[in-house]
Amino acid sequence: MKLTAKQILIIIAIVVVILITVGVWFYLKGKKTVTIQKPPLDDPNADQGTGNNPNAVSNGQITAIASALFEDMKGFNWSGHNSEPYKNLDSLSDTDFVNVYNTFNAAHQSDSKETLKQWIENEDYAFSDITKSILERMGRLNLI
Question: Where are the domains of the chain?
Answer without folding.
Answer: 1-31, 59-140
